[in-house]
Amino acid sequence: MELFKGSPSDLGGRQDREIRVYRFLDELGIEYERTDHPDEPATTMEACEKIDAVLDVKICKNLFLCNRQKTSFYLLIMPGDKPFKTKELSKQMGISRLSFAGEEFMTEYLDLYPGSVSVLGLMNDREKRVQLVIDEDVLKEEYFGCHPCVNTSSLKLRTKDLTEKVIPALGANPITVTLVGAE
């Protein structure tokens, strides 16, 4: 895997959702680094370890969740090495029960598929149906790693750019939580 600055010079063969991400970041004037890994899609946190080494950043877990009634949806961003406990998050958010949302909602609301969930998918949520939730430990890091809405490339950008430029441009109003990974 190689490290590149900014968007690919040749966008041929790239998915529309990925191209939209590069245009979005470029329009915001955000500097970012990128690595492509088409032969090794990042479908698990273990696969992300190699990508972490190339980007010199910790890739986050991005979990698409919903309430029991499937009427409220959440995108949780948390450190990849921290255990996720639904009970802990449910308690902090005052929701009786959270679970993983189905792929059909992920596709409909964020134009994403399992393994490619990213905060950048919120650019496709024009009706603002998905609430962004961020573990405070993510915000303490200098850099933020995520996918450009596909799991065959990964990005590294400044966390400050995420919080001060990307999230406001997405129109998201994040909830910050403190997760410790305990019951």
What can be said about this structure in brief?
The chain has 183 residues and is an alpha+beta fold. Helices cover 30% and strands 24% of the residues.
Number of helices: 6
**Helicity range:** 25-40%
Q: Which class best fits the helix and strand makeup?
A: alpha+beta
Our measurement of the CA-to-CA distance between the termini, rounded to an integer number of angstroms, reads: 38 Å
Could you describe the 3D structure shown?
The chain has 183 residues and is α+β, with helices and mostly antiparallel strands. 30% of the residues lie in helices and 24% in strands. It contains six helices and nine strands, in the order βαβαββαβαβαββαβ. The protein has helices at 16-27, 45-55, 86-93, 103-110, 136-139, 159-170, and strands at 4-5, 32-36, 60-67, 73-79, 98-100, 130-135, 143-146, 153-158, 175-177. The longest helix is centred in the N-terminal third of the chain and has 12 residues, at 16-27. The model has no long low-confidence stretch (mean pLDDT 91).
Search tags:
four-stranded antiparallel beta sheet; 183 residues; 9 strands; single chain; alpha+beta; 30% helix
SSE topology sketch:
Blueprint: E1 4-5, H1 16-27, E2 32-36, H2 45-55, E3 60-67, E4 73-79, H3 86-93, E5 98-100, H4 103-110, E6 130-135, H5 136-139, E7 143-146, E8 153-158, H6 159-170, E9 175-177
Parallel strand pairs: 4-6, 6-9
Antiparallel strand pairs: 1-2, 2-8, 3-4, 3-5, 7-8
